Amino acid sequence: MSTDIEGKTALIFGASTGIGAAIARRFGELGANLIVHYRSSAAEAEAVAADIRAAGGKADLLQGDIADPRTAGSLVEEAHRRLGRLDIVVNNAGTMFGRSATVDVSDEQYRKVIDLNIGGVFFASRRAAEIMRNAQRGTIINTTSIAARTGGSDGAGLYGSAKAFVSTFTRVLAKELAPFGVRVNAVAPGVIQTPFHERYSTAEQLDAARRGIPLGRLGTAEDCVGAYEFLASERMSGYITGQIIEVNGGQLMP
């Protein structure tokens, strides 16, 4: 299927598993030239890239810990160098590093959550914004969360607060970059069945969440992909910027 994503270049952070992997595979199907970023899941990232290549797409791997501000910016630069231009950046890497009430959050846990979920998005976006502003085109898509609006479920308050930064930062960048033809939007997944919840949610917590979802089920990574595809397409969303698309089965209806 021919779309206006075909032939574009895309850097997808956190693309080895879950939502990021599903986005990468879909963009590969649509003919994008991809950089698949991962931190430690090398085998999983290579599997994603192999699937893209097997389907006739183009994919390269890029490893690095974007919790390090110097690394986040340098990965964007390296992707730009390899691809020749940078049309799409998806900031999808993030996690909560365990569930803790605020009074129980350690200094180390706080630092990890902030460095990855806020710092990773900020420093990667700062460099991407510079590149796209100079090119007078491009789109940045951030992954926030339903937790940014609700405060998160038990023990996820710090993570939800970090994601609230991502939501607001999306609007900030959208205003700053609009005069240069660059769009910035975000997707806010609800409870999605990915390795994230395998690590941080019990079966009881997930069942309780399911009961509160009008569509009657938890989401999948593939349920989220359409929102990213929509926001990446100039044809479909060229007049949309500064917006957050909620993908949660009706769990939250803002």
Supply Rg: 17 Å
Output the number of helix runs: 10
For the report, how would you describe the main beta sheet? 7 strands, parallel
Q: So what's the CATH class?
A: Alpha Beta
CATH homologous superfamily identity: NAD(P)-binding Rossmann-like Domain
Mean pLDDT: 94
Shape: globular
The number of domains is 1
Can you put this structure into words, describing what you see?
By secondary structure, this protein is of the alpha/beta class. It is 49% helix and 15% strand. It has 10 helices and 7 strands. It has helices spanning 18-29, 42-54, 69-83, 107-135, 147-150, 157-177, 195-200, 203-211, 221-232, 234-237, and strands spanning 9-12, 33-38, 58-63, 88-91, 138-143, 182-189, 244-247. The chain has a 7-stranded parallel sheet with strand order 3-2-1-4-5-6-7, sandwiched between helices. Strand 2 (33-38), helix 2 and strand 3 (58-63) form a beta-alpha-beta unit. It is globular, with a radius of gyration of 17 Å. The two termini are 34 Å apart. The model has no long low-confidence stretch (mean pLDDT 94).
Summarize the structure.
49% of the residues lie in helices and 15% in strands. It is an alpha/beta fold.
In terms of topology, how is this protein built?
Layout: E1 9-12, H1 18-29, E2 33-38, H2 42-54, E3 58-63, H3 69-83, E4 88-91, H4 107-135, E5 138-143, H5 147-150, H6 157-177, E6 182-189, H7 195-200, H8 203-211, H9 221-232, H10 234-237, E7 244-247
Parallel strand pairs: 1-2, 1-4, 2-3, 4-5, 5-6, 6-7
Helix pairs in contact: 1-2, 1-9, 3-4, 4-6
